[in-house]
Amino acid sequence: MKLVIVSGLSGAGKTIALHSLEDMGAYCVDNLPVGLLPAFIEQMGPLSEGLGCCVAVGVDARTISEPDMPALLQTISVTLIPPQVLFLEADDAVLIKRFSETRRKHPLTKQNMPLAEAIKRERQLLEPLAARADIRINTSLTDVHQLRDMIRLRVGLSPSQGLSLLFQSFGFKKGIPFDADFVFDVRCLPNPHWKTELRNLTGCDAAVINFLQTEPKVQQMCEHLISFLETWIPQFAAENRSYLTIAIGCTGGQHRSVYLAEQLAQHFSQRSYGVLVRHRELSVISSLLPVFAEKL
Residue 197: in which H helix or E strand, if any? Predict the structure, then answer.
């Protein structure tokens, strides 16, 4: 049985995450008090065949009564089953805007506690879970459909695929991705934007690909990035990391970063990794399974 603990800040998308996992066939329970986790898992064990291979438990700040979350999770890992922790977060300004738009009340809001203070308090309560998270997603710039796709692809990956790599293109004018492990700036490369016939295309279009493939600096950058990542990705894998996000940024996130993210994804999909590709400014996310999986 696979256990996924879903937590995060109110308004960051926890309910969407649980619904996505339920659509994937997981048995989901929301707002379970953390102290009941060991007993719940023991009860789920004999029922796992009837409920499916994945159980997801939603945990929020209202249900945390355990003073030492890391110790509790370690105990569960050793005595029962290693849990996978999915943590969702967003910027304070984004959360305040979402609560204002939906007119919902924050679960920690009281008469003498304004929304901003309630959000700050919730961050403090959930920090032990956030620090333990295997998957940590900032949804500030993510819509509902993108979040569902990311959860489906990340949580749905088979453990046998080992380390999962997410190659993400983005535009610096909209900010750097919050959850990136590596950020590479490729704004120094020739820009297809200045070619009128290429301006409205993307790095996935043949004309832009042909243009960038003929530029020596672009190919040199791609080779250097591959060499760097070939050296250091195995080091992260050796530390039992499950996920690694590599962000490639250009000015608008439309041409150069998209092209290079695709090139890197194609290269590393030939290795024993699960590879995801997301183009943030294009609202596109896809999965490339490693070649070895096709032989199974």
Answer: none
Tallying the residues shown for the chain, one arrives at: 296
Cα dihedral value 114, 117, 122, 125, nearest 10: -130
Could you give the residue ranges of the DSSP H alpha helices within the chain? 14-23, 37-51, 69-79, 92-102, 115-132, 144-155, 206-213, 216-238, 256-268
Residue with tokens 């996978």: 84
The rounded distance, in Å, linking the Cα atoms of 234 and 163 is: 9
If one compares 1 and 223, the residue with the highest pLDDT of the two is 223
Rg (CA), the chain: 21
CA separation for the pair 43, 224 (Å, rounded): 51
Q: What is the DSSP code (8-state) at residue 199?
A: T
Would you say the pTM of this structure is higher than 0.70? Answer: no
Rounded CA separation 209/192 (Å): 10
Summarised one tens digit per residue, pLDDT across range 185-218 is 999 999 999 999 999 999 999 999 999 999 999 9
**pLDDT attached to residue 162:** 65
Under 8 Å between Cβ of 256 and 218: yes
Task: Single out the residue of 289, 8, 14, 278 nearest to residue 146, CA to CA.
Answer: 278
User: Percentage of residues in the chain with pLDDT exceeding 90?
Assistant: 42
For CATH 3.40.50.300, list the domain ranges present in the chain: 2-156
Residue with tokens 């003929």: 214
- Which residues, other chains included, contact 89 with Cβ-Cβ below 8 Å and sequence gap of 6+? 8, 9, 12, 130, 136, 137, 138, 139
Which class is 2-156 in CATH? alpha beta
Question: What is the rounded end-to-end Cα distance, in angstroms, of the chain?
Answer: 22
Q: Which residue has the tokens 């309560």?
A: 125
Which positions ≥6 away from 131 have C-beta within 8 Å?
70
What pLDDT does 157 receive?
46
